[in-house]
Task: structure prediction
Amino acid sequence: MSSDVRALIDREQIHSLFQPILDGSTGEPIGFEALSRGPSGSPLHTPDALFAAAAKAGCLQDLERACTRSAIRSFAELDIQGRLFLNVLPETLLGWAHFPDWLAERLGMANVDPHCIVLELTEHGSVPKESALAAAIRPLRRMGCDIAIDDLGAGSSGLKTWSALRPEFVKVDGYFVAGIEEDPVRGEILRSVVEMGRATGSQVIAEGIEIAQQLNLVLDLGVDYVQGFLFGRPQSVPRVGAFPHQRTLPGASADCAEHLALSIPAVPANSPIDAVVEKFRRNRSWRAVAVVEGVRPLGLVRRDELLVLMSRPLHPEIYNRKPVTAVMDTTAVQIDARARLEQVSRLVTGQQARQQEDFIITRGGEYLGLGRSIDLLRHITAQQIQMAKQANPLTGLPGNREIQAHLSQLVNRRRTFIACHLDLDNFKPFNDTYGYQQGDQVLLHVATTIVRNIRTRMDFAGHIGGDDYVLILRSRDWSIRLLSILEDLSVSLVNFHSAEHRRAGHIDAHGRDGVLASFSLLSVSIAAVEVAAAPGTTLDSVAEELRRTKVAAKARAGCSCLLSKDGQIVDLLANPPLEKFQTAETVILKTLRS
Result:
């Protein structure tokens, strides 16, 4: 078997399958995990047999090289869109000092952007040198790769590794998903992982999802991404199956169900019905009460329903001495205090029989209080208003606060990215001539064009205000996307002018100095700065370089797109920066120049 595994490596008979990883809020794939296989039908086909044989033969590192080469080559040849999740043993990083250089070379040969790569470090067994492992991944992060901890919960050192590495992703072992529909303890453990992810900034991926019920439960617990046979089995050419979940728009999640809890005392299960009727009569603001056995809620009794029942002839004599459990609603929704408001809304409105006006809130399975739908609606509305305040009111794009936060995160993590400032030339005379309503239509059109051309899972677009927009690009084909924005706007903006002005090629309007002058038609100036993953990079230095590049771009007539790189300003219309995209960019450039 030892000679067999060496032969497979030498003959490059390792091949890769890909399994999708989906965004829990949209159902769209964000990436694919590469899974290695030996020749079909052979004893070394499965990964367990393959790696066991390599370990016995003393060639684990050679096998890992072969698996990584195969995954990168197939990912590039198939032109798979999204992130590539690569499995790497911690021992490889600790024992192979030149792995980052080797990986960079392989990615370069395949024209794969390192920002697309997520390295999954398995959590099986013990990793006694967390600090050494943290040092080993630093050069990989500087390249642009993200880190994931794989199979969290399967080993003994997961939390220590999590704390030391601060991974971008945490993949929860499939054991905690399998049977979660029958075992609430597994759900509580997964909920704890989600809460730790929220606290540490790691995004949680639930693996091993096979049925829709598991999907609904893990999404209600707040996981960010999902993976499993339900969405697609590992295949050489990946396919994504249906996403059987009612999707909801992501919203703010600062508040939780605990903030909705009203301190209305519960009644014991053996309480007689007439005693509960009397409680309602003395407390006219109560709409419902919970029924508990000890501290565990059993159901809910609603005021109006109970009083109507007891108002019928002979019903007081029949029901007065019966226990309250005889009239309680055992299907009442019970929600954990830590559930986010969007989860609460989904649970409360998801009842098939009717929308629940009142629901039970628990903490650790114990009764905490009652929640009301009207209060839930009020809190969600307040969140949406707060989000609207932070976004640009016209375009809905993130405003200054989110732009600053996004830039800070990338700079602090020493990521390489392209920061761009886009604004319109001669927008003021246009606004003065055509009015603010037409000006707003132009601004909305620009925002729509930007969003349509960027890759929203990797790129970011914000609206400072007026005709000023900020783009933060991390897509490997960022230059094509930037020039596509410029092309679309250069063709479409002219249509906002009247036929008369289009024929004349200018507008006569008063300038900022109040003097009547001729102004060219609307055009676009884009200033871009390549921000390197360097220790000296700060928000101020990025802003200053953007300002300098913007001045140069605005000084040019018509549409312009300038890039500041290594202190030099390059005209992207004349000098496309990425040779591997030269052919596609040439098409765009010809259109722009014609």
